[in-house]
């Protein structure tokens, strides 16, 4: 798997994208009251799984844990997603979850 860009390395590669990510996504969208950070994390994990964006999943798995999702809840979500996004997408997501446990 390729090395993930974190906030600092993203800022070096694409400063404007890093700025927009911080200001619009994390300081605005993630702060809105209609959904909790926990709910937003669950939605994000589902979207990344459905789209096959496994490179982004490890960071979001950690973030989901910070937002209150348990490992068991994420396993259950990925299992549920197997029937809606396909087996390969769900298994790839579970593999990312296992990488975070090592």
Automatic annotation (TrEMBL):
Stretches assigned to the Carboxymuconolactone decarboxylase-like domain: 15-99
InterPro entries noted in UniProt: 4CMD/NDH-1_regulator (IPR052512), AhpD-like (IPR029032), CMD-like (IPR003779)
Protein name: Carboxymuconolactone decarboxylase family protein
Organism: Candidatus Pantoea multigeneris
């Amino acid at each position: 798997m390729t090395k993930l860009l974190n906030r600092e390395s993203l800022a070096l590669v694409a400063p404007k994208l890093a700025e927009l990510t911080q200001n619009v996504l994390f300081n605005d969208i993630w702060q809105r009251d209609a959904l909790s950070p926990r709910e937003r994390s669950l939605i994000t994990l589902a979207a990344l799984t459905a789209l096959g964006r496994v490179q982004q999943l490890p960071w979001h798995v950690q973030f989901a844990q910070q937002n209150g999702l348990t490992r068991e809840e994420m396993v259950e979500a990925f299992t549920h997603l197997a029937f809606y996004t396909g087996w390969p997408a769900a298994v790839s997501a579970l593999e990312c979850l296992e990488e975070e446990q090592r």
